[in-house]
Every structure is written in structure tokens, then in C-alpha cells.
């Protein structure tokens, strides 16, 4: 398909919808009005307190905790996947 001036907005909207559809419904955030978005991961209700702690922990500490069995790699990956989905929605929103 050739992108023209007439159809670029339709193509872009379809791609944006496809990206949103790839995020599990339970990981989607409500539209955000605020320009300050730093507190959204902690307030949107998607991340558990443990996941917030994981995503706020330095990588070397996560590796050590995983190696010792304090954390499961699945839980670490899930926490970062959720946080990435939140970030993606925030940077991909309409301006």
C-alpha cells in the first residue's frame, strides 16, 4: 500500500490501535490529563506493591535476589512488562 497524504492518518490510527490491542486489557490505563506522569505507575492500579518495588530496584540487586531465590525471574519479567505497557501508553497517547 502506498502511503499518500490522504491516507496516512488512517494508516497511523490503525497502527496505533494494533499496538493498543497488543496490551492486555487489564494492563491498560485510563486516559491521562496530567502532564506530570511520574506517579502514574504507582497510582494507576496495574502494578502491585511488590511489582513497584521490583521495578524500583537496581538491576544488580534484582540479579542477586533472583540468584538467591528471593525473587522469581517470572515475577521480575512480569513487573517490567507491566511497567513497559504503562510507559508505552503514556508516550503513545494523543497530544
Features:
mainly alpha, 5 helices
Can you put this structure into words, describing what you see?
The chain has 95 residues and is an all-alpha fold. The mean pLDDT is 90. It has five helices and no strands. The chain is elongated, with a radius of gyration of 17 Å. It starts with 7 loop residues before the first helix and ends with a helix. It has helices spanning 8-21, 40-43, 49-55, 59-68, 73-91. Helix 3 (49-55) crosses helix 5 (73-91). The protein has one domain (8-91).
Fold blueprint:
Elements: H1 8-21, H2 40-43, H3 49-55, H4 59-68, H5 73-91
Provide a count of the helices: 5
Give the number of domains. 1
End-to-end C-alpha gap: 27 Å
How many E-type strands? 0
Task: Please tell me how large the radius of gyration is.
Answer: 17 Å
Helix proportion: 55-70%
Largest sheet: none
Q: What structural category arises from helix and sheet content?
A: mainly alpha
Order of helices and strands: HHHHH
The overall pLDDT average reads 90
- Tell me what portion of residues adopts beta-strand conformation: under 5%
User: Outline, from the CA principal axes?
Assistant: elongated
Q: Which segments are poorly predicted (pLDDT under 50) over 5 or more consecutive residues?
A: none
Amino acid at each position: 500500500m502506498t502511503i499518500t497524504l490522504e491516507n496516512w492518518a488512517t494508516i497511523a490510527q490503525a497502527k496505533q490501535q494494533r499496538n493498543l490491542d497488543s496490551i492486555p486489557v487489564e494492563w491498560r490505563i485510563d486516559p491521562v490529563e496530567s502532564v506530570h506522569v511520574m506517579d502514574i505507575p504507582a497510582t494507576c492500579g496495574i502494578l502491585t506493591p511488590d511489582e513497584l518495588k521490583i521495578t524500583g530496584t537496581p538491576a544488580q540487586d534484582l540479579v542477586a535476589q533472583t540468584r538467591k531465590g528471593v525473587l522469581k525471574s517470572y515475577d521480575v519479567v512480569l513487573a517490567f512488562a507491566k511497567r513497559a505497557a504503562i510507559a508505552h501508553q503514556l508516550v503513545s497517547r494523543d497530544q
